[in-house]
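Q: Structure tokens for this one, please.
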Amino acid sequence: MTTTPYTLSTIMDSMSITARQITELTHTLGSPIDVEPMTGGLFATTFRVTLTPEPTTQQPRTTAGTPTRVIVKIGPSDPTRVLTYERAATRTERDMFHLGEAHPQLLFPRLLHSDTTHTVVPGDVIITEELTGQPWASCPEHPWDAPHITAQLHRYAASLHRVTGDRFGYPHSDLSATTWTRAFGLALTAVLDDANRSQALVPTERIGQVWERHSPHLDKVTTAHLIHADLWPGNVFLDERGNITGIIDAERALYGDPLFEFVGMDQLGTQLLPNTTWQRYSTQARLSGGQALAPATEQCPAGVSESEHHSAVVRFLLYRLYMFSLLTTELSFRHYEGDWVAGYSETVQRGLAEILLRLEEI
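A: Here is the predicted structure, written as tokens:
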């Protein structure tokens, strides 16, 4: 294994990690024989580490003494570079993976070790087993709108949402409360404060007025459902047949309205839920003992009152407004670089303007 430090840059950090630090982080699991920096992430600094397990250590799920690979994920070291809701993101992910031990249907990787002391490296650390399969986003043979995978993802979401908490909002933060209306309001206010601090192109005053007018609709959410909030194809692992085998990157998880999940699945979208999505999720949820999804669809479904439909639509649009405000703020906060930034920025700005206008006109 090389003695040269592994220097890996993300939007958040340019972190230089030595072989000694990797060895110290993984010593309870085995001896590292290879370390591979994983590029492409924007938030955490991540390594794939091949270990030779020691007979006396806690071993990943493998045959004793057989080399195996684990994922070492190090959170940002500078709290001033993260948005307010992200400040405890790595600790949230650690807790989600702990939760996955009691709820195997969550399909999270097994947590092997965590370290929040900052004595070895300057950020929070989690170490997990490496999932089998490949990210959906890396499987060109399985398009992002593949019906059989989308149906599985909706079933997964219904299963995920059966897990509930005793508080709403983001764990390990001040953005949680005993009601969803209060917790979401705190999260939205935090994003708007971050936008003002970074001089992002977010019309914070208009958004505040829309929130004040429409916030009572969130009072209808009385159960704190677990929400992954980032179920895009990059975080969904598939086997060669297109079956979902695992879910990663749970650091943005929160407890609240299941409708929020569908904004996280389609973060740049501006449409309401397709009727097929609402029907598929609701059917699966009922079969598994859960609750039907609120009908945030263009047309009011049969058997649903106009007031229930209207309330669901307003909530869904508020969640889209929150997401576009967050994405716009990230652009200013992170100082992204690359050929993709201009087009992405235009899409985000257009989406923010469209959703805000729609809420103002309701």
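A few notes: The first strand starts at residue 6 and ends at 9. The chain has two domains: 6-129, 134-361.
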